[in-house]
Specification:
With 418 residues, this protein is α+β, with helices and mostly antiparallel strands. It folds into three domains: 110 residues, no CATH class; 67 residues, no CATH class; 171 residues, no CATH class. Helices cover 28% and strands 28% of the residues. The chain has a five-stranded antiparallel beta sheet with strand order 7-18-19-20-21, with no helix packed on it. Strands 1-2-3-4 form a four-stranded antiparallel beta sheet. Helix 9 packs antiparallel against helix 10 and helix 10 packs antiparallel against helix 11. The protein is flat, with a radius of gyration of 29 Å.
Length: 418
Amino acid sequence: MKIIARIFILVTGVLLLAHYLPSGFWLVADKPQRVPYVFYSAVENRFLFFRYGNGEVQRTDAAGKNYDRDEFEQLLPLDNYLQLLRDGRMPKTINNVPIPIDKLRVERISLRIKPELLDNPAVALYPLLEAESGRVRLEMPGDFFRLNHTIEFIDAKSNRINADKSTKFQSAFAATRFNFPAKIIAGNPSTMKPYDEGYFITDSQGAIFHLRQVQEEPELKRITDVVASGEKARWAALKPRFIQVQEQENREVRAMIIEEDGQTHLVIGQDYRLVTLPLKNYDPAKMQVGVRGDLLNRLVTVSSDHYVEAMVLNRNYDFVDRYTETLPERKDCAAGKIAGVIFPFTLDFEDDASGFIGFHFSPGRPIALTVNAVLLLPALAWVLIRKHGFIKRFPELIAVALTGVFGLAMLFLVPKTE
């Protein structure tokens, strides 16, 4: 029984040390770096950047030239129009294109998908707002729906199924040939938005539908039934992994779709036009993707801790320009190479690409195994000199051979058995 308890203490101790020793090392040795925040100047048709270093923000271009704040704002009038209007510096045209002041705010769009959103748990109860209530503000309904083998609406106060409403909506699902159960139910269940887009839903066969409630009646469309003939095959071939619905004031972008292979698409306009974003190195599990738009352009960015890709599209979503930049990963810097030798592996309980707590192991460099063998020699010498007995300390010696510095620490921390 003692040996079992000893092994349990060793394993637990090694796991804790594999987390806290590397964390302490990086607390001292880490030199934080951040990928630049990318802008696109419609004035000069080139990329500009916020770069972060030495505790301050630098405003630069791709050539490394620095700008003061006023110069930078003047190059980005569509991003800084409020300040420029206040100062009387807002241009009336940009490259001979008139800039109507009343359209600047309405034409701004912003969407972003972080990696952790792809595996977040969800409560399978969804509010379906009235899309055309005639009221200025959206209102939260008194019921929620769920999609199992049917659609059911549940009254929030009584916790009872609204049979009449459920039957009415179930008829709409049957009429559009929806195959239960649903795989993806994507919406924006909030009243803090300019209008309600409803939900984009995939059925068990992967077909995509669009559900809204209009004047208390169901409006359900199988998208392949309503798009132009040239779009039908593309929609039918989609294999969505994640769909984000986030209503924009200009009602241009209806949704963003990420497929299982990482292909990313925007759903544009009332005709559900599908725009594929020609991204080069997007990995949904590790990178965030965002779209920022203004009166003239759409800027798509993909970023991680060490990589940024920015792509500019015009208002018709035709490709204009691209910028990529790669920063050295932490493991490749001098401190990272030292850590990879000292620590045969590290353990994190949180992962930037996931919203879940778990065991996330990162291996060290192969040479760390040689370091483990070297550390075994002083461990053997210490056991023999202190006359602890080779057999009694055998579990700790195995821990040193397998886990290096973590096992060596446990050799000194765990008392010998009598």
